[in-house]
Predict the 3D structure of the following.
Amino acid sequence: MSIFAIKRASDNHGICPIVRGLEMINGDPCEYCDGKLQYRRIRAQFHFKGGTIYIDHVPAWVCAKCGERYFDAPVYKKLEDIAQHSDRIKKTITFPLADYERAAL
Ligand SMILES: [Zn+2]
């Protein structure tokens, strides 16, 4: 079992979550708020080369309190690999985008 240092990925690099080793277990405390971490499958948002890629069903540790996400190091590596080969992504989703400055409410 490898132990990876806790690190926050730089903003220009990716999802900016924390990558941790394989030693995590359900109920581990969050680094920020001491909330309990739960192992879940999530839709990860990955910023890459000026674009944003969403990757479904990513295993992650999610803080039940603040929502901070943590990825095991091998998982994070795979997210990077998927982003590197984003030309192979077949499915595109659309979502509404509001503009705070122009909102006439
Ligand atoms: Zn938290």
